[in-house]
Automatic annotation (TrEMBL), chains A, B:
It comes from Streptomyces roseicoloratus. It holds the Pfam family FAD-oxidase_C. This is FAD-binding oxidoreductase. Keywords: FAD, Flavoprotein, Oxidoreductase. The keyword Flavoprotein applies.
Amino acid sequence: MPATANDHPADRPRSWWGWGYADAQPDDAECLALGALLPGTLARPLPLPRIADLPIGDPGATPPASLAHLVTADPAERAAHAMGKAYRDVIRALRGRPGRIPDLVARPSRDQDVADLLDWAGEHAVAVIPFGGGSSVVGGVEYRGDAHRAVLSLDLTAMDRVLEIDTTSRSALIQAGALGPVLEGQLRPHGLTLRHFPQSFEFSTLGGWLATRAGGHYATVRTHIDDFVQSLRVVTPAGTSASWRLPASGAGPSPDRLFLGSEGSLGVITEAWMRLQERPRHKAAASVAFTDFHRALDAVRDIARSDLAPANCRLLDPGEALLSGASHDGSTVLVLGFESATAPADDRLATALELARAHGGRAEPPTAGRGAEAGTAVGAWRSAFLRMPYLRDGLARMGAVVETFETAATWDRVPALIDAVRTEVGAAALEATGHRATVNCRLTHVYPDGAAPYFTVVVAGRPGDEVRIWDDIKAAATDVLHRHRATVTHHHAVGRDHRPGYDTQRPEPFALALRAVKNALDPHHVLNPGVLLGRHTP
Amino acid sequence: MPATANDHPADRPRSWWGWGYADAQPDDAECLALGALLPGTLARPLPLPRIADLPIGDPGATPPASLAHLVTADPAERAAHAMGKAYRDVIRALRGRPGRIPDLVARPSRDQDVADLLDWAGEHAVAVIPFGGGSSVVGGVEYRGDAHRAVLSLDLTAMDRVLEIDTTSRSALIQAGALGPVLEGQLRPHGLTLRHFPQSFEFSTLGGWLATRAGGHYATVRTHIDDFVQSLRVVTPAGTSASWRLPASGAGPSPDRLFLGSEGSLGVITEAWMRLQERPRHKAAASVAFTDFHRALDAVRDIARSDLAPANCRLLDPGEALLSGASHDGSTVLVLGFESATAPADDRLATALELARAHGGRAEPPTAGRGAEAGTAVGAWRSAFLRMPYLRDGLARMGAVVETFETAATWDRVPALIDAVRTEVGAAALEATGHRATVNCRLTHVYPDGAAPYFTVVVAGRPGDEVRIWDDIKAAATDVLHRHRATVTHHHAVGRDHRPGYDTQRPEPFALALRAVKNALDPHHVLNPGVLLGRHTP
């Protein structure tokens, strides 16, 4: 039952160099206001970069006539596919030193197109970078190195249909190139939803979520997109892998789990049967303020260990709470949300609030129902959350350096880890810039056995030196995570920027295994070279 | 914080040829009573097989002196490690035609022992069969074929300690050779539990559960042992893989998920950090009778789609309900159980009962608290559940053929699948034996998008022909599952008996990948040959 999209975001122009929609980027006045908050930034914003100034030459390879209709060498297209949307990408564009611009952009519309393009690329040593919404913040969609004759960005967004809906099993077959709003728009008429709402929801695709093991809407239990996969279809240079639609299986190691997180290095995910949700009919949300951040951690741990399963359970340290408008008095704020399509969620919220009070939490009066979040700390947090990446670009234009990174660790390590990140990454930023950095922390997802802290570092840079400063901060972050045995990424993926941390974290026999798989499925090593495997180019 | 076991089951002699404890096997009188229920069975039970009658020769290889203390060639040990506990294994022992008896049994007590044994085996073409509790029902611990000079059964049960408990993160580092009661006995003093209670709980190990992706206690949400893994330590011929303890990670494809379900073919799991539970303080259980099996399926689907998350949600068809004493009037019975360490579970039970009533379910009065199950359909079911494999052995001694197999499929396919299994497997059994078979079905685990049906086939055999009959029934079952795109196994694993179904189900590029991993990690192909990969020997 093919459905039609009623909410296609392709009509609203996207920024080629920065986050999201071009018309949502901060204007010069807003940039100046942002800069005023951060002493040491520039007197005026960096000008917007222009595609005409980019070093875009002739493509290093030409596809055969049979593939020509899928491929373009248009400079604007190539520029828009050159990098992801990390701060490092944005500042390189602003400073006129972007990453390598791909030679070609392809837009396949079916599996056979993908297979044909991979065949051609393999024969001609053309690197293929699978590209969904391009929102990678880890260098996941950019070519680095020089081992290939040309670089092809493989844009999947023309494959964006919900092909089939099975209401009995509450699941749908969805093409991987569907952006968040595009797939939700096709599911809505059926009263169904995937409910995967990462910060990049508007600018990322199902295939990107799957390839990077994205973290989504739910703060507990089913935190990653992985948990919603029924089956995958993956086009590899060695053939197409199509797993069976199953609610669960114990037949050998999971085939899907090998491709989930493979970041385009083993194959191109083109379709997936996904488990869906009914739209929630019951909601209950509240926020809780704490004077003591460490007592708040204890409260969150108790809630995470319970079987209450909040959909939202985000803990904002005082800096995060202030930045998002959730609190102005130096409190730590816990944003709690429950939802259900089955039964009212108020009892679960009440029990969670009891647990929070036992650790000194002061609950705002609970709110329930639609629109309950407006005007509350919960609502303030949500609006700020979606605006945040645009503000980052505004800060970048003022010469600030901004880094966000996230991790996960078991509870026994979480408090010391957060303290160490604040101290050590703050020190590295000071050392690199001469300015005092803001280092904020929130917990985005929580588990019975641990939590996923997310850090934001903001510091005034030194003009022209921002990339090096960012690299220093990243190195310090990687080092402290490694020493605390916290994962190099909970849901942002590895890409190229996290390779040093990933290479140390990954058990060596698993690296052997993964290299063997790479050789078997991508014998010419054309798929996303340098991601997860292969020579690391910083 | 090493703990001591207070409940080690090694003191009670185990049956070398049949299920469980030797003294719990049905005696001749009970066998006769069982046979009386099934026309066409033998007049008297087959005699108990004797180790002295087995064809046990000299070992085909001798380990070096440095390993001699780990290894035995004792006939009783070798007999007890010759096969798993499938009906096919039991009847072969009873008929004096067991599988190949291993040449040697090793009992390592540390990782280095395992590594040394693997090194020696690799150099001398000795097959190594990792062995936990030996409860495989899929030919997972038996050598078939002739490509190796000798066969070593690698018994891990001397590595059975809980090495460390982290109460803050509610997790423990547990050696893989710990049998269910052994590890629970060490966790109990800390008020913690793994709560993994497969039917084989007393006779299977943590390592076995992990290697086979065992299904456990919970009927919903966290149904497999996979979900409780924080990290794994795996000794492979190419080195030891030790993943980091993490509550979650998005760093590349999950290393642990490659070894979960690898069934001893890629490495030997020696330790795991496991997520634990508090013992539940609140319980609520009830059973619901239905006149119509298909309406009962609809009720279970509604409950599985809700967020009520019952711990137990087992649907017994009339035959299963009768057999277990849960019902005597031809009803289908749904056994529901809720538990929580946080809050009373009665409301959740009440909501689930409402959903069941909407599909014609008649609820027994709900019961709550400790001991609530005694004397109820729930209690009857649980006692019968644990006794069932012993009764199977009693039936085997009466010449009956018994096969149990399980699967999972999406809800859209479940009703037709169950009907087809009843019809087609019943027809195959009749064809093979001339007798009418009983084909019962229960759902063991349920999901929002599907369910895991479990089938029991019982039929009077033809004396001496039982293995061929079983093979015919298995082939018919594999065929019908395949045509309905239902997985060859939900939690019994692949082993050797499920290879034909697994080979068809597994996507070919994933097979390529798995073979590449096998070559990389087990270059001499000594680990559990024929399981998942390699030549299939029926």
